[in-house]
Amino acid sequence: MVPVDRLLSMSTDGASVRAISVLADPTRTAILGMMLASADGRVLVGRIAQSLGLRQPTVSYHMKALLDEGVVAREPSGRQVWYNIAPEHRDRIEALFANPVAHERRPFDLVRIVDDLALRFDGTVDRPTIESCVTETHNLLKRTSHPNLLGSRTAAFAADRLESSARAGVQGNTPTVLFVCVQNAGRSQIAAAVLRHLAGDRVRVLTAGSAPSPDVRGSIITALDEIGIPFAGEFPKPLTDDAVRGADIVVTMGCGDVCATYPATEYLDWDVEDPVGRPIGDIRAIRDEIALRVRDLLPAVLER
Which residue, 2, 213, 272, 286, shows the most beta carbons closer than 10 Å to its own? Predict the structure, then answer.
């Protein structure tokens, strides 16, 4: 069993503080351990109750908490309901049980990241600017991002920032939309995923958060998957001036007056409820409201 203090000291689960506390409960930790130990990764509530010496309603209560956070998935089969660790969380849960060593001292080849970006932006951005952007981006993400993915996320976010700077004030580019919320793990990610899905290469889509979380909540990814919208490679990012400056439209959701103002940029504020800590039914409703807003926005974006 993973000690509670170890779980609380780690941010590798990539969820909010609420989700971390959900995982920290020793009964829920035991449930996840049984899932990992199972031959096919599946468990039944009744068998868990029997193995742990608990009443079935008690196990059901803990399973619901894990289910609401998107940590586990539900699989009905006839009259039985099986539970397993959600695929998007399995690697992180395995890491919690297998190797608690912190990754703060893990070496990252920032020189190689700079070399690759220098080739990508050859003739557009000079190397000193790229070096400065990579270093600053790496330092920004170290505060919140998943340590196992810090290298790739540094490269991806630095590329977005350099692209935004290069596009600022240039006419005739593919229109850029920036979605901003507080944690960049719910509303803004839903909106961005829907717009990418609907617009394809016709629109450049960015996201940011005024106080970004370590990772996107599993329940958000699940809610998008239910309606056929893929979610791959995205992660919470801090709000930077270059992202706002390079956007044609900035859409904010619940983050207050955090964006710098530029004359060529259009600003919208959507009053949408925060899905953090909400059950999956509420998240679906929020998802659908955001999807409708994105559909209404798309024609105006494509006209730019």
Answer: 213
